[in-house]
Amino acid sequence: MTAPLAGLRILDLTRLLPGPAATMHLADFGADVIKIEDTAAGDYMRDFEPQVANAQGVLVNPAFEATNRGKRSLAIDLKHARGRELLLELAGNADALIESFRPGVLARLGLGWDVLHARNPRLVLCSLSGYGQTGPWSHKAGHDINYIAISGVLDQIRAEGRPAIPNLQLGDLLGGALSSLSALLMALLAAQRTGQGRWIDVAMSEALLVHHFFPHAELDVGQQPIGGETLLTGGAACYRVYETADGRHLAVGALEQKFWESFCDAAGLAQLRSRHWACGEAPGSPAAHETIAHVAEQLRRRTLDDWLQVFNAVDACVTPVLTPAEAIVHEQAAARGVVRRQGAVTEIGPLAQMSGHSMPSRPAPRAGQQTREVLAELGLSAGAIEDLIASRVVQEAR
Question: Which residues are catalytic?
Fold first, then answer.
């Protein structure tokens, strides 16, 4: 079979993490993703530390390599009139363009929605930003921590009673990458059916707000969700992280009563079988904290490996808290073939297993690596391309 997105051309004007992660998934499934970079810094995530050698022996940033694998790079100066015209020519043959400039920047360059739509009515434009294209915060700068803070997500992630920063970029990846990916694919499907593209406005903070279901449900019934005291944030004994004798941790997710009963029996805590939220023990209550203390005391009696031998044979929703190094070599990841190496760079993917398709293996490009190739596909002669390079409208790989 051909790749599911073969024949789809995406122009990617984003940098750093959210946009490149979204288009990484498109490239993994066969789309031709052309990374449009400026002729100055390009995507400066390339230069972040740490640096390791890729399969070609070149020092690279592993996160950049992961999020830009399978793409082609064209370096254009969009401040130059000819550079903007080249982008419009590319847009005329593309299916979608995704950008992450501040709201209004693309329009000020003369490349806004009206111009792009006039050039190619079926083109989908996805604008990805922190707070959206409209509203009083639309022009504010921000990063992942700001988006999870303003959406109420950070308040619910707590350690020792204080908001704790997760080391999975929820705003960038859930709010940004996956939300723009899904919206883009929906608009592309509509464009195939109708011939008309759409302008998508993805706000990372808003997409987080959309998905924060359980705290909003608690508010709806008149309860104030308090991080660390609710059912899914550690307020119940059946859904918590516990320390073991060797300083490692177990994640207990026995939300259903049958799993809790299995957990209690296996852990030597049969007397706690009825101490479950489904039996009336309210999360965050004094009774719940008493049950938590009993479980914590018991689990600290044995090492992680000892408990894994116990729980591996029990259907109780108990797993080890693995380090990232342990996670990428875990037997489940190995069995699924989801981790592979490009030199010293770890590649993980694709997003989902799909019959008839395996993820292509092509390292991230250098800035401008395919400049000549992409321009030649526009029909430009070798001489015309040389003139563009000489006048610094475009740039070859450095």
Answer: 143, 172
